[in-house]
Amino acid sequence: MSSxxxxxxxxxxxxxxxxxxxxxxAEFFKGISKIPYKPDAGPTESLVFKHYNASxxxxxxxxxxxxxxxxxxxxxxxxxxxxxxxxxxxxxxxxDGSNSMANAKRRLRAGFEFFTKLGVKYWTFHDRDIAPxxxxxxxxxxxxxEIVDLAGQLQQETGVKLLWATCNLFAHxxxxxxxxxxxxxxxxxxxxxxxxKGLDVALKLxxxxxxxxxxxxxxxxxxxTNVRSELDHMATFFRLAVAYKKKIGFKGVFLIxxxxxxxxxxxxxxxxxxxxxxxxxxxxxxxxxxxxEPNHTTLAGHSYExxxxxxxxxxMLGSIDSNTGSPDLGWDTDQFPMDVKNAxxxxxxxxxxxxxxxxxxxxxxxxxxxxxxxxxxxxSHIGAMDTFARGLKVAANIFKDGAMSKHVEDRxxxxxxxxxxxxxxxxxxxxxLEAFALSQGExxxxxxxxxxxxxxxxxxx
Length: 461
Ligand code: XUL
Ligand code: CO
What we know:
It is an enzyme of class 5 (isomerase). By secondary structure, this protein is α/β, with parallel strands linked by helices. The protein has 17 helices and 12 strands.
């Protein structure tokens, strides 16, 4: 989305010839073949899987079935490395930096070669990542149709499927004051038209989910904002999308992706519990689940796995944008997840709820702007996939052993009989509880044993 996309000049000065990629069977990642599983590889070998073995069975399902990895198109094929202080650093030999349809098609074909060589079965995109905006909505839709036809063909040829599609309702200047929460009804209507088309495309490409991230659905100042009105409009927007989804027979799951801020100062979908409360307030909780991104969770001031745990506890966890932030920076850095403990926390929840399907682990991650080599695109994904494979194996060991969950269960045993059982069933009163407290005296002080639990976890990791 940067205005400093590399020009044809600077790219060709690096020896690029874009047309060479326009021929049938052109290879985009020369010198890299299908990434193998090599468990005995040494520390310097980063173009092999050391832990992710797609067909290996863990607790009655293959790793591939548990993990359902997905590559996102926007960072991996549209990211330029530009930041607020610097120009693009990531030059891809097939990308001339233009908004042309030819360039869009080259990127897409490079994408499918990448997914296939990496061995990932899913991808995700925003409508505007894959096809350029035209002069008006009708032309934009025609551009999208043409690219979607190619995407459908590439999906068919490679067997790679669409985990989810989404609409970019935040980058274009028309959305600067929001999309469905825009004070101008004309913008609301434009966003609705975009989502209508997005759902048609999702249906056509067999998307298993459809995501709504409300990038600019929020505010910078209370002074100019009617929050109640904006939230009512946002609910109407979702109701209209649900109605259209049913009308066209799209079976994918609708997912809202919470985030507390960036780009707005305050985003309405602050965190998992805020979104669940919103859905229940407006009677939408049966129609929409959540797509949780840990970097957003930490931005909201929670621990990495917090929103995954909370949404799963209410059967609302649909999918995960598996990335990580940098606690020492504190913004949405969208880094590749490389921490085995964090992956273990996530996979414990996934195992407990019996899987993520039809959701998955989507890498909403970008290589650092300093990681400029083409092979860094592979190394980053491989490292994150290995991290989650290890997290899965550790979580499975914890699960099968049962020691940790037995300890947690025991902590709540007072609710299994007597006054506890009455509280659990709601079959008591303040009078009865007062009588209990008067007769039983001061409760015993029972240790929470956090360090004991942390030590147990370290035993498995
Ligand atoms: C932004 C973000 C988005 C959503 C899809 O922080 O995570 O890319 O995942 O719009
Ligand atoms: Co995301």
